[in-house]
């Protein structure tokens, strides 16, 4: 955990480093325990060292869905290292905006900002989304991003 | 136009250069003619110097849709320079795969390869798509990519 | 049936007449038999006096789905008279194009042409679809319309 | 109606009985009045003997949509007897969760619980939905189910 | 601008006039400035002479998306004159309802009422949507329309 | 493998047995190897003892997607035992039909038939799909099922 804080600093100061350089998980995790641990580490990496509230809320009533999110989505998929985290986050934000899934899009847009993506880059994804998915999904995504940007600014001030 | 051929070579040899470095269009195009010209240049940049057959086929019966594709989608949106072309193509491929639009996804995956994206990176987008959009869309995208890769390999041999 | 042929002529020569003026079904059909009959009449009205092949093909293996299509979709819904047939067909084409359902969109675009909608009006729907649903769905719809227009022209020549 | 109350008890005490065993509607309803009556009976069967508030709210401003929901969706479709009510509800919950229609999914999940489906079985549908439709839709469905479970528990206590 | 107010009156009193008869924009707008001006005029035409709040809210943080909405969606697409405004609005409402985009659907339903579409015609679109898109999307659209109708009635009273 | 053939017989003769009674995998598989083995066993159980061609085709070019399909989708999700295989297959068919994913829907409809679901039950799912997802998706699903039924009949004859 100490080393995690240390590594976080380099992200905050150095911008978009590649996850695989930060995380010692390039060895294939093969047990569910190791996959979940990799997912948990990934989420802390993406979420400024903190757990993800939605995920924690699922653990009691939907333990399998929580495990699948952690071990499969965040561990197996997000833990891969061919794409850097910035590109994967931008592509995930694009996919979720295109599908109209603004709630999780916003979560991943926050992760993107945490790993060095700029607000301007996220806005570009929203502009681009008008082409594959039309204006209603792009406008909904722009409103979700505006709220996210606003909350982050007010939480920095406090 | 001569300079275009020259610039293409650097793309083919040098890999994933950022579009805004290649294209002198950072000045806002403000007439429909200039926007269409920018879109046409962009498509040649993405498509190895050639016109896009689907777009040309629309010009006679659907002239407004062809113009909108060229001037708005490719000129206004793809001509922006905050994101580099590689990232925009990967995000567009992700959005189209998520929506099940495998036909245009394949076109943009081809553009992505032309501007230096690797096959491995495109595969990563497909893996990632299982998370926001599920397995049927990811599997359909993988089949479209397999066909694209195969065609490009056989056309190189000839 | 004789009166049907007579009425068809007025459609072919007189353009977009309102269905409720043509069809004596403004009295609410209340039995399944009457609703199906109204649907069958509607389909002949929309389809140049002929049965709809897809519907007929469903009758043996999917009799309930065939009945629901005939009695509910075509009888109850298409048989209503607040909107004229042209407007309903254009709105149905828009909805199906937006959803990517190009197969049934093409069927309804053919109906639209049969009740006096012009090719130019159908193209406008496709242009408009770029706004709510993006370019891939609009382009797919344009390709389906091109095929439809081409087939109808060659069948007229013969 | 008296017999309805009697039959309800067997559902509440006996768990997941098959609707067709409960409802004397296997004879095809052929008038709109009979179809609507069958739908109204079905909704009381699914909704603990009470009317469905959303449906009642539509009756004044959208009378045809209310009638279609009652006579077609609940009467014709839900009144069929090849599938038992439990399986149909689980399949309907799966379809609505996959489409992101969490509002009506929650209504049908409530019906499912009323005819003897367990909370664990509904959770399994949500887990399964990650495969055809991805994690955002599954997570949204899990949140809607959590709210439903919580409300039903607090209303039992009162 | 003076002439705009004058023309608005004829819309409010005279019902569903065709946009192309009102707007002197049939000459192709070819600069972004002229396209944006045409879009701004169109929005005032559709919105009782007032700006559109969502659009204005986007201008600061998402200037390109605001420009694309104004110049492309409202200027280029809505400014076309093959379809009259009533038909285009009904088709747009159908497409947005089918996609589940009830927020923008409601905006366009308001525009439709402003250019002379009746509440009954909008309800017909919603009934029809059960066929291409199913009951959950139609019911959600009916609820959005009910709210819109109710707000407009209470604002007229005041 | 011998015991697998033995167990298959009981399925073919005895109808819809619950998977957990057939498969000795109720113990949680915790390594990727064990999860993949469970998925492979599940696919043979669902597919009459044979491998799934689409899955095998993915192994070379998309090894991670093949592994995720086998270990996550078929091992972790399909290997759960709260729902019996028949109910899970019917719900999966409903979800895929609702999403318009007729290709994989057909694969899972074939699995459903292999574990004792009847053709009539699959048709009921398709009828039901008109309610949550509309007629185009239901009709497309009916056509895919017709093809599947026809192929299976002709392969039995040979």
Give an overview in words:
- The structure is a homohexamer of 158-residue chains.
- Chain A is built from 9 helices and no strands.
- Chain A has 158 residues and is mainly alpha-helical.
- Chain A has 2 domains: 4-77, no CATH class; 85-157, AhpD-like.
- Chain A starts with a helix and ends with a helix.
- Mean pLDDT of chain A is 85; it is low at 1-27.
- The interface between A and B is medium-sized, with 31 and 31 residues.
Blueprint of the fold:
The structure is a homohexamer of 158-residue chains.
Chain A: H1 2-14, H2 19-22, H3 32-46, H4 53-61, H5 63-77, H6 85-98, H7 102-114, H8 119-133, H9 135-157
Helix pairs in contact in A: 3-5, 4-5, 6-7, 6-8, 7-9, 8-9
Protein name (chains A, B, C, D, E, F): 4-carboxymuconolactone decarboxylase
Organism (chains A, B, C, D, E, F): Alkalilimnicola ehrlichii
Signal peptide (chains A, B, C, D, E, F): 1-29
Shape of chain A: globular
Q: Which regions of chain A contain 5 or more consecutive residues with pLDDT less than 50?
A: 1-27
Describe the oligomeric state of these chains in a short phrase: homohexamer
What letter string, H or E per element, gives the SSE order of chain A? HHHHHHHHH
Cα-to-Cα separation, first versus last residue of chain A: 26 Å
Count of DSSP H/I helices of chain A: 9
Radius of gyration of chain A: 16 Å
What is the number of domains of chain A?
2
What is the average of the pLDDT values of chain A?
85
Number of strands of chain A: 0
Q: Specify the structural class of chain A.
A: mainly alpha
Instruction: Report the major sheet of chain A.
Output: none
- Strand content of chain A is under 5%
Largest interface: A-B, 31 and 31 residues
Helix content of chain A: over 70%
């Amino acid at each position: 955990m100490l080393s995690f804080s240390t590594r976080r600093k380099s992200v905050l100061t150095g911008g978009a480093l590649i996850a695989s350089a930060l995380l010692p998980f390039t060895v294939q995790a093969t047990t569910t325990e190791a996959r979940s641990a990799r997912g948990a580490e990934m989420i802390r990496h993406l979420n400024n060292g903190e757990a993800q509230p939605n995920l924690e809320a699922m653990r009691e009533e939907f333990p399998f869905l929580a495990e699948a999110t952690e071990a499969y989505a965040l561990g197996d998929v997000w833990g891969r290292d061919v794409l850097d985290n910035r590109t994967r986050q931008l592509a995930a934000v694009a996919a979720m905006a295109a599908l109209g899934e603004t709630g999780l899009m916003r979560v991943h847009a926050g992760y993107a900002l945490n790993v060095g993506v700029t607000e301007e880059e996220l806005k570009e994804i929203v502009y681009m989304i008008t082409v594959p998915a039309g204006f209603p999904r792009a406008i909904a995504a722009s409103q979700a991003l505006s709220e996210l940007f606003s909350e982050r600014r007010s939480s920095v001030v406090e």
